[in-house]
Amino acid sequence: MNTLEVLLSRRWVLKARDKELYYQIKDGIGEIKKFLMEKLGYQVIVNPHLVKVEKIPARAERWMGIREFTEPIEYAFFCLILMFLENKEAEEQFVLSELTEYVQGQYQEEQIDWTVYRYRRHLIKAMKFCVSEGILNVDDGSEEGFAKDCSGEVLYENTGVSRFFMRNFTQNIMDYSDYTDFLKAEWIDVDEDRGIVRRQRVYRSLLMSMGIYRREENEEDFAYVRNYRNMIQGELEGLFPCELQVYRSSAYLVLGEDCRMGRFLPEENTLSDILLLCGQLLREKVDSGEYELQNNESVRISREAFRGLLEECRKRFGAGFIKTYREMVTEEFYQEISSYLTDLELVEEQREDILIKPALGRVIGRYPEDFSGGSENEQ
Q1: CA nearest neighbour of 135 among 100, 114, 161
Q2: CA distance 160 to 164
Q3: How far is residue 284's CA from residue 241's CA, in Å, rounded to a whole number?
């Protein structure tokens, strides 16, 4: 078990959910606490309930957020649940109707009518997330009863860890008008030392993002990576198996085969396999001159050309896909794959064009030469 991998991969380690791991992490946290605080600027929380690292990105990205939530109202309901739990003691029980009454009274954007199914569905997603994260325990009943009828009851128990979910802010966030205000405030106490801010941005980008792309606004960050690549590589390699790869206008932290730190690429699903095959086609088209490589190693093509790239991938390799993707209609396949690539920030929609990031051309997959439609793919 690698303590750093666990802490960066999980929101927290709860004593009530995994006592043995909790004590292992608690006993070993001293070895990496200095690294987390100095190189990433992350606060480490250790208390009788949990161990948690306050993970803040260098910049906001599309894939960030709670993956179970798809609508803003679900985030709003979740925040109201946290507010509701502020007045509950650890191990205190409450029924769902008590919470629904509170949410109905506090939500200001519109009138909540629990007889309308969509409102119940949104609240159920927020409640299930709370249960999965260890914020709540279900003592009796289930959310499915509430899904069928607004009079359905569930008995919950507050675990007491909800107060550690949100960060403690030193500024009054009610004055913030944009999400970037949170990132600006992150380094307000060290603003006078640009070196510290730059170092923490670089380490956060390498550990929390797909990679670092050289842009006009981050020239200093990329220069830091190029100038101190050996130091960064040596330090990170001493903590977990990895390799720092630096190119002309991009840099990536490639994890070792045994490292399972957070969400990684390729993932173990068919979408990821298709992504790798798209990467192969992209490389072929760049090498043949069909696609022009820009100075920043990215490729800009029209939406029609991008659609053609995905369709070519499907026609050429589709026999090896699982049934779900083999039988998708063309538009459904396009939407599914393009959304996946966009969410991972491997492609970016720019007005009429599609910008393909360098990372897509550096992760490729190939079927064996004797592939006939039923063979396993090589990656």
Answers
A1: 161
A2: 9
A3: 30
